[in-house]
Design goal:
Layout: E1 2-6, H1 12-21, E2 25-29, E3 40-41, H2 45-49, E4 54-57, H3 62-72, E5 81-84, H4 90-102, E6 106-109, E7 112-113, H5 115-121, E8 124-129, H6 132-145, E9 146-153, H7 157-185, H8 190-197, H9 205-208, H10 232-249, H11 254-268, H12 280-285
Helix pairs in contact: 1-5, 3-4, 7-10, 7-11, 10-11
Bound molecules: nicotinamide-adenine-dinucleotide (NAD).
């Protein structure tokens, strides 16, 4: 396929490299100067999009996605697919898809989980919103960039799935860290705590696969000085998107709201910026109830 790839940062660059390695003809564009093996660089977003079968975007937020969509949709060829893999607000995803449909082609929102490691290794999970035709056209690209793609329904539903998942993750990580800090104060050994919870009803991905306590459970960012991994800043972004969506949909999400406020405090007022989101544990360790 002829692929245009716009937004070649931490995630986009390895994803584009994997598509090129698999034999697709990839033309890239990024505002910053980047060079990727096998990817030809274009001088503008329009030039990267024109004449391509699929245009992939991997951008920081909804406002930038809207701006790039305004540039590329008018030059995209008929029957092309616009495939946005960024994490953005549901409304921007739906508006951009409507704009693409009005111009006569398919658009998919397909945010990912798996982080930079998953992007590099081609093991991302895609959560996809949009029509069947678009999904079927790009499914071979999902197979190259990822290990799984779940079609979640119409436009915006990929973003909806992503923020609901990450709202669960954020709240669960916080309570897992709280519980470790409480266990410490009660004199409960961390290994015993892990052995019980990881095989009892309190188990979760945060405890079992990504344990926030160093030296306990499988290897995780806690064993690496809380270097991300999944940065607290990115968790905060996703929790804010969840709250924005909850507000728009009039959904009551008290724990999601509390998790968002706590990560905001951690990242913006404390030492959470640039640290893994599981660094909530050393945060709680240092604190009393007060
Ligand atoms: P990044 O900041 O490394 O990359 C974004 C790229 O977009 C940058 O290279 C930037 O120069 C480029 N860009 C910005 N505006 C542009 C424009 N108008 N035209 C062309 N290029 C432009 O971010 P990232 O870590 O690659 O994340 C990309 C998206 O993936 C985000 O939406 C993020 O939330 C999501 N995501 C990231 C991770 C992760 O672990 N990094 C995990 C899952 C999802």
């Amino acid at each position: 396929m002829k692929i245009g790839f716009i937004g070649l940062g931490n995630m986009g660059a390895p994803m584009a490299a994997n598509l090129a390695k698999a034999g697709h003809e990839v033309t890239g564009f990024d505002m910053a100067k980047v060079a990727i093996d096998g990817v030809e660089m274009a001088a503008s977003a329009e030039a990267a999009a024109k004449g391509r079968d699929v245009v992939i975007t991997m951008l920081p937020n909804g406002a930038i996605l809207r701006a790039v969509a305004n540039q590329v949709i008018p030059v995209m060829q008929a029957n092309a697919v616009l495939l946005d893999c960024s994490t953005v607000d549901v409304e921007s995803a739906r508006d951009v898809a409507a704009q693409a449909h009005a111009a006569g082609f398919s658009a998919l929102d397909a945010p990912v989980s798996g982080g930079v490691g998953g992007a590099t290794g081609g093991t991302l999970t895609f959560m996809v919103g949009g029509d069947d035709a678009g999904f079927n056209t790009v499914s071979e690209l999902f197979d190259i960039m990822g290990q799984k793609a779940v079609h979640c329904g119409p436009s915006g539903n990929g973003q909806a799935a992503k923020i609901c998942n990450n709202m669960i993750l954020g709240a669960t990580m916080i309570v897992t860290c709280e519980a470790f800090a409480l266990a410490d104060k009660l004199g409960l050994d961390r290994q015993a705590m892990f052995d019980v919870v990881s095989t009892s009803s309190g188990y979760s991905w945060s405890m079992n696969a990504y344990c926030p306590a160093p030296g306990i459970g499988p290897k995780s960012p806690a064993d690496n000085g809380y270097q991300p991994g999944f940065a607290a800043d990115l968790m905060l972004k996703d929790l804010r998107l969840a709250q924005q969506a909850a507000k728009a949909a009039d959904a009551d999400t008290p724990l999601g709201r509390a998790a968002c406020a706590l990560y905001a405090q951690f990242v913006e007022e404390e030492d959470g910026k640039g640290r893994d989101f599981s660094a909530m544990l050393p945060r709680f360790e240092k604190r009393g109830r007060g």
